[in-house]
Write a structure and sequence with these properties.
This protein has about 210 residues and is mostly helical. It has one domain. About 75% of the residues lie in helices and about 0% in strands. It has seven helices and no strands. The longest helix is centred in the N-terminal third of the chain and has 31 residues. It is globular and about 55 Å long.
Length: about 210
């Protein structure tokens, strides 16, 4: 039996990894749903399976477009990992809020710092070994240093922005502290998405130049 072409094997691998990323994201969304009291029309335990299917479908669709826009598929993988990073961030944050009952003040700042840090670690591993496929990069130390430099800027903006909204602005009347904590956590996420992508692609996980 002939082996499948390398491209087909790569797509199959990407689909499996997309399923894993989706499953993890769905699992991490469970404490968010519980903490915010979001009503679902299906059991919460179905969230990992639903997310896994959606992620795989989205990445498959992106692979069909990638023949015309090669960088689009790479960005799609980065976006998928970004959703998982948000899942780690929000999931851990809401789990800590749910367990302790604290959603503001120094506790929120500590919880947010922990959740963002775990999201950063998750981001490094998935982007290095999957999105930009630089597992065989010879400059491991430089790469890690560059990653930390790019990410610290984004993390700093993320945490400071969230702390400003939650602890300085404060929750408006009629909005619970738990909901406002999540609104604060969302701040700056859209702006850092593209900054991180280009920073990681061209500065952190850049491919070595090929000498003719």
């Amino acid at each position: 039996m002939a082996l499948a072409p390398a491209a087909d094997r790569a797509i199959a691998r990407d689909m499996v990894l997309a399923l894993i990323v989706g499953f993890l994201t769905g699992a991490l969304s469970i404490p968010i749903v519980i903490n915010l009291g979001i009503a679902l029309r299906f059991p919460r335990l179905c969230l990992p399976l639903i997310a896994a299917a959606l992620f795989a479908i989205a990445l498959l669709a992106a692979s069909l477009v990638a023949s015309r826009v090669p960088s689009f598929f790479e960005f799609s993988k980065f976006a998928v990992v970004g959703v998982l990073n948000s899942g780690v961030d929000f999931g851990v944050l809401n789990l800590l809020v749910l367990v302790t009952g604290l959603a503001s003040g120094a506790a929120f700042l500590a919880f947010k710092s922990i959740s963002v840090t775990l999201g950063v670690i998750n981001s490094y591993l998935w982007n290095k070994y999957w999105t930009f496929d630089s597992s065989k990069s010879p400059g491991g130390r430089r790469e890690l240093t560059a990653f930390i430099a790019v990410t610290l800027v984004a993390v700093g903006l993320n945490v400071v922005g969230a702390d400003l909204i939650v602890n300085v602005v404060g929750a408006p009347r009629g909005i619970s502290a738990k909901v406002w904590a999540n609104i604060g956590a969302i701040s700056g996420a859209g702006l850092t998405l593209f900054a991180n992508f280009f920073g990681y692609k061209f500065f952190v996980f850049r491919k070595p130049s090929v000498v003719a």
